[in-house]
Write a structure and sequence with these properties.
By secondary structure, this protein is α/β, with parallel strands linked by helices. It has a domain of about 250 residues: Glycerol-3-phosphate (1)-acyltransferase, CATH 3.40.1130. The protein is about 55% helix and about 10% strand. It contains 16 helices and 7 strands. The protein has a 7-stranded mixed sheet, with helices on both faces. Helix 4 packs across helix 5 and helix 5 packs antiparallel against helix 6.
């Protein structure tokens, strides 16, 4: 599950294109030749794999044992999330025109399985809190979690966590790592999937889509400022879009993407100067094998390939074996109104964390 936020200040399309080109160059280095792959055969193979993995999966125990009213609510949420997941799967595959074809019957078991996981995640958040629920989901959707630098995160006081956004379990990996901040709120783009998780959405500052207007985004920024003024913690993804996983696409692609991070931290620092800004880098959440899958390579743009690879990773357990890595950097704070110094320090720490996440010999 990915929490996305739009950028507060829009960089030029040229720089965005440069970043995508960098990702593309990194991804093409080991890309197989798929010019002669039969699309129908590849799709059938994917569906057969997904069907084998969900074969025999029945209702969750909670569905069977819950009281009638609770079971009815669970079933309603399950159906809604299943349809949302199907929409996302068809969109990721570039097959939205076939959404209501017989293909949906083949993909529905995978969509429903992930919907069950999401419903249980939301229930755990209500019962045990955001960090524990997120820890459960990380272990369910990946090979575990490795965290470093947690001592850099203040246990109290206004704190803003600034993270890259490679997608998949990046957000829940961060949330699971930050149990020491039960006051944490996540700045997240408005998505039907998140709206269907009522207990999760209570921990979000929801940012409207760009077509909803500038006022909605400003309201979200003000909400974040108020939370910081009261000594709270916020998590934000300054890129405002999915970024390359440093462990898959390498240091250069990840650092180029980080150059385009929103400078809204300057606004937060001016409004709440006592805020501590903690850079974070998440890596090893995207499956390199899923990106090399011949079906993924049928998508033309690197962005579409990344989305398709994520869909494969959600549907097929063999792509979810690696542990997610979260690294927190040294906290930074504005001094005497020197916002330029703050952003320079954050940029340097982000570059260091990216380098460490891929190893000194990887570019």
């Amino acid at each position: 599950m990915a929490f996305e936020v739009p950028r507060a200040d829009r960089r030029s399309d040229r720089r965005s294109d440069e970043a995508r080109a960098a990702i593309g160059r990194a991804g093409r280095a080991n890309a197989p030749d798929v010019r002669h792959v039969d699309r129908g055969m590849a799709m059938r193979g994917f569906v057969q794999d997904a069907m084998r993995e969900v074969g025999g999966v029945g209702p969750d125990r909670a569905e069977c044992t819950a009281p009638a009213a609770a079971a009815s609510a669970t079933t309603s949420a399950l159906e809604r999330l299943t349809e949302i997941n199907l929409d996302d799967l068809f969109d990721a595959m570039g097959l939205t025109g076939l959404r209501h074809s017989s293909l949906q019957r083949l993909l529905r078991p995978s969509a429903r399985r992930f919907a069950r996981v999401a419903v249980q995640f939301d229930r755990l958040v209500a019962d045990e809190g955001l960090a524990r629920g997120s820890a459960w989901l990380v272990n369910r959707m990946s090979g575990g979690l490795q965290v470093s630098g947690l001592g850099h995160v203040p246990e109290a006081g206004p704190t803003a966590i600034l993270s890259n956004h490679p997608g998949m379990v990046d957000a829940v990996a961060l949330l699971a790592s930050l149990a020491l901040r039960p006051d944490l709120l996540v700045i997240a783009r408005d998505r039907p999937f998140l709206r269907a998780l009522p207990n999760v959405v209570r921990h979000l500052i929801v940012v409207p889509d760009e077509d909803a207007g500038h006022a909605g985004r400003l309201d979200a920024l003000r909400a974040a400022m108020r939370h910081l003024e009261h000594g709270g913690a916020v998590l934000t993804f300054p890129a405002g879009e999915i970024e390359p996983d440093p462990a898959v696409f390498g240091r250069l692609a990840a650092q180029e993407s980080a150059r385009r991070w929103s400078r809204s931290v300057v606004l937060l620092a001016r409004r709440v100067p006592q805020t501590r800004f903690v850079p974070a880098i998440v890596s090893h959440v995207v499956s390199a094998e899923a990106h090399r899958n011949r079906l993924t390579r049928l998508r033309r743009s690197q962005c579409d390939r990344a989305r398709f690879a994520a869909a494969l990773q959600v549907c097929l357990a063999r792509y979810r074996t690696q542990a997610a890595h979260v690294a927190f950097g040294v906290a930074q704070q504005v001094t005497a109104g020197a916002s330029a110094t703050l952003t320079t320090a954050i940029d340097a720490e982000v570059r260091r964390l990216i380098q460490a996440s891929v190893g000194s010999g990887t570019s």
